[in-house]
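Give me the fold.
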Amino acid sequence: MTFKKDFLWGGAVAANQCEGAYNEDGKGLSTQDVAPRGIVGPITEEPTDDNMKLIGIDFYHRYKEDVKLFAEMGFKTFRTSIAWSRIFPNGDDVTPNEKGLQFYDDLFDECLKYGIEPLVTISHYETPLALAKNYDGWVNRKLIGFFENYVTTIFERYKNKVKYWLTFNEINSVLNQPYMSGGIFTDKSKLTKQDLYQAIHHELVASAMAVKIGHKIMPNAKVGCMILGVPNYPLTPNPDDVLEAMKQDRENLYFADVHVRGAYPKYMDGYFKENDIKIIMEPGDEEILKNTVDFISFSYYVSSCATADPEKLKTAEGNLFSGVPNPYLEASAWGWQIDPKGLRYMLNLLYDRYQKPLFIVENGLGAIDELVTDENGNKTVIDDYRIKYLNDHLVQVGKAIEDGVDVMGYTTWGCIDLVSASTAELRKRYGFIYVDRNDDGTGTLDRYKKKSFNWYKEVISTNGKSLV
C-alpha cells in the first residue's frame, strides 16, 4: 500500500453522540437533545430520560482518558465537532458562552499535547433548538448571519490550534433528513421542495462564507466541505438504469459541485424548472459562492443501485437513506451492504470530477459486540469482523492512491463507541474502544480496548504496510 508519509490516520466522533453534559456549563438545547430515537422520531417537547445522547459516553468529562487512548493507537488526527449550542446556547445570542469555548480549548490542547491534529466539524447534525423552533432552521435566511457570528467566534478562538475544518457534516443528507441535518422544524411530510432547496441555498452560502472568513483569519488553515458519499451503480446495463444512476449521483454531487466550482451546475436548472423551484438569491450570493473549499471530505459506508423499473424498487438500508440492493453484495446486521471496492470507485469518481484533495472522514462497521475476558484476564471484544471490514476498505484506499487519487487521510467513524445517529442506540457499536454503557442506561462507562485497537495501532505505525 502506498500511503504518503504525512497521511492523516485517525478516528472520528460527533459532539452530540459522545459528549453528554447536555445541560452543563451554560450549554443550550440542541435539536438532538429532543430526538431520543434518532431519525425515526418523535421529537419531544423537552429532553427525556430515554435519550441516550444526553449522557452519551460522557466524553465531556472523560476526554483526557479517551485522547490518551487515541494517542496510544498513534492517531495523527482526531475528528470531532463543536456543539453550536455549547458556544451560543440559543444560536442567536450576541455573546458566546465562555465555558463552552474553554471546553474546546482544553480538548484541542489535550490532542496537541500528543501531536494529534484536531479536525473540526463546525456543524454536525446539531442546530441550537431555538433556531429550529423560532426560525424553522435553515429555511430562514437569518441563520446565515447567526452562523457567520458562530464561525467567526470559533475561528478567532482556535486559529492557533486547529488547521483542518469542515463546514456542514454530510450536507447533502438534508434531502432525506431535514430536521437532523438542517434544523428544519417543519414536518418532513409538509416541507415543500421550494423551502427545502431554499434552505440548502442558505447552507451553501453560509458554507462559502465560512471558507472566506476562515481564509482571512487563518491563512494557513484548510477548510473543506463534507458530503455523504454514496456511489450509485446502474442495476442493469439498460440505458434507462444508467441514466437513473446518473440522476441520483447528481442529486448528491451538486452539493460538492457548488462547494468546489463556486456556482450552481447547469443540470440543476432543469430540476428546478421541473419542480417549480425558484431559488431566491440575494445580491452578493453568487460572489460569496465563489469562495471554494480547499479539499473535499466524505463519509462512506455503502453503495447503492439505481433502476428505472418500479417493479425492482426494493430498498436496502443505508446511512440515512435507502437504496436498491445490489445482488452481488453482503449486508451488515443493520442491512447496510458492504462494498469495499465502492470506496475505491468513489475516490476515483470524486477526484476525476474535481482534482481536489480528498479526505475519508467516516467509514466503519456498526455491530453488536460481546465483551469477554481474554486469557490474561482482561476484558475485550474479539471483533475480527470489524478488522476485516476496515482492512478491506483500506486496501481499496491504497489502490485508489495507486490510481493517482490524492487522499489526505482516513478517520474511522466512532473510533470509540458512541450513540448511533440513525437509531440513537449504543448496541450498534463502531469503536476500537468498548464503552460499558447499555441502551437501558446501565453500565459503568468504563473503557476497554477491543482486538481492533492493536490492529489499527499496527496499521498506523506501519503506514498501511500491515494491511493484507
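The chain has a mean pLDDT of 96.
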